[in-house]
Amino acid sequence: MSTREAPAVASRRWAALFFIGLAQLMIVLDGTVVNIALPSIQRDLAVSDGDRQWIITAYTLAFGGLLLLGGRIADYTGRRRTFLVALFGFAGASALGGAASGFEMLLVARALQGGFGALLGPSALSLLAVMFTRPQDRAKAFGIWGAISAAGGAIGLLAGGALTDYLDWRWCLYINIPIALVAAVGGYVLLTESRHEGRARFDVPGVLLVGGGLVSVVYAAGQAESKGWDSGLVVGLLVGGGLLLAAFTVVESRVAQPLLPPRVIADRTRGAAYLAVGLAGVGMFAAFLFMTYYMQVVKGYSPIRTGVAFLPMVMAVLLSAGGLSTRLLPKVPPRTLIVPGMLISAGGMLWMTTLDAGTGYAGGVLVVGMLFGFGAGLILPVAINYATHGVDPSDSGVASASVNAAQQIGSSIGIALLNTIATSATADYLASHGMNPALGKQAVAEGFGTASVWAAGILVTGAVIVAVLMNTPRPEDRPAVEEPENAEPQPVV
Fold it and tell me: Residue limits of the Major facilitator superfamily (MFS) profile domain (predicted)?
């Protein structure tokens, strides 16, 4: 290809990134948009208090349990093909959920959403990883991706509040249909196929072991909120999940074509990146949870007002991820961005301890959101970039799936653990004040503050580990002969 055609090739890649980003936004939105609508769904479909958790759990179990398989399917059958199939499947599952006439139908739809999401997330991220290889371009592309990942949850809260207040809870599911169709059309036109050149051979024992292990751990975390971490069910699930995952690591070191080759996670840089993504998930979802409940329960905000109150946090993420990270990453080692990002996010969580029933928005939620958003924007683009950096192209899908799995496990366990701490602290505060009902809102704020200290401690610990473990120097531009920037990616058959 002539050099004068190179700008067109570059424009095609950046245009493709827009549609891949839409798919990622849809996945992240679905993690929070339904949460806001839960009370309305419960009333409309006559769901009991004990069963309502399954509306969230059905999605998370399918998503978390099938992620690594989804990544391998993308590697073997084609990342573009998997991306398009997953988009249409996700849209169909969303349509089924929006039209649900009963609880059982909604659960099936949510499980299908999770399954197709487990195909969509790894295929989208692996497409990004193989499309952008030069350090400067990767920094920009992953900056956009990280901004979407960090801000999408807050946008989901805003969208969920608006759709629930002004339309109907069903639109929290229907909204996925136009997004998926637009992303599918753009992906069909702009993306080229890439896949592992060898014959597709799936590691069935690995699939069963890691799927069972991840489902057990995620489900245990979900049950811990209601049953307690010391219940027999939760302990049994955690132990069983741990044993299955341990067996998975043994199997993967011995089979010819492992589902997750040990070389993918054994690298110090990638291991630290997975850790950073997982711990960022702990803090990010804890921030969403605590701030949402603080604003609605303690301050009495409506769902739509709560969503609007998150907008400064979204802007902080966009400024940090889209502006600062993309400019600095090609010039500095990755840990010089991730470590400060974790510390800044920890500072945001610590600021939660200053909030009480009388704290104003500007001195409370605004500061928390700005600090956490700015820190998350430094963590996610860099960590996701280096979680797929230097991976053999044949392993791109499963490496991308590992990033999603780290975030899924981190957020599931983190939310369950921190919510348990918050609930216990609230109960202790009320008990120490004679169970005075007038102090109910203050007790809730105290609980969130206590749990936020733990969240900050987790982030600080992660910052120390990443600082020690991630010893990668700053990126270097490779010679043009190694960089196919001026050539159209060709389909691999």
Answer: 16-474
The first and second tokens of residue 338, run together, are: 């991730």
Give the separation between CA 250 and CA 247, rounded to whole angstroms. 5
DSSP state letter for 322: I
Confidence of residue 12 (pLDDT cuts 50, 70, 90): confident
pLDDT computed for residue 402 by the predictor: 81
Burial 295-320 (b: 16+ CB within 10 A, else e): bbebbebebbebbebbebbbbbbbbb
Distance CA 70, CA 119 (A): 4
Using alpha carbons only, give the angle 245, 251, 252 rounded to the nearest 5 degrees: 90
Confidence tier at 284 by pLDDT (50, 70, 90)? confident
More confident call, 295 vs 11: 295
Length reported for the chain: 493
- Kindly state the DSSP code that residue 478 receives in the 8-state scheme: P
Residue 85 has phi, psi (to 5 degrees) of -60, -45
Residue 51 CB burial class (10 angstroms; 0-12, 13-18, ≥19): middle
* Cβ contact 208:400 at 8 Å: no
Structure tokens at 19: 């549609």
> What does pTM read for this prediction?
0.78
Characterize 195-224 residue by residue with b for buried, 16 or more Cβ atoms within 10 angstroms of its Cβ, and e for exposed: bbeeeeeebebbbbbbbbbbbbbbbbbbbb
Neighbours of 54 (CB within 10 A): 17
DSSP string, 420-443: HHHHHHHHHHHHHTTT-GGGHHHH
Identify the pLDDT of residue 198: 59
Tens digits of residue pLDDT in 299-330: 888 777 887 888 888 888 888 887 788 788 77
What is the band of 181 on the pLDDT scale with cuts at 50, 70, 90? very high
pLDDT for the residue numbered 476: 55
- Amino acid (one-letter) located at 229: W
Place of tokens 């849209």: 91
Dump pLDDT digits (tens) for 395-450: 777 788 888 788 777 877 777 778 778 888 888 888 887 777 777 788 888 888 88
Collapsing DSSP states into helix, strand and coil, what is residue 489?
Answer: coil
Cα–Cα nearest to 54, from 174, 191, 223: 223
Query: Closest Cα partner for 345 from 472, 461, 218?
Result: 461
- Which of 264-281 are b and which e, b meaning 16 or more Cβ less than 10 Å from the residue's Cβ? bbebebbbbbbbbbbbbb
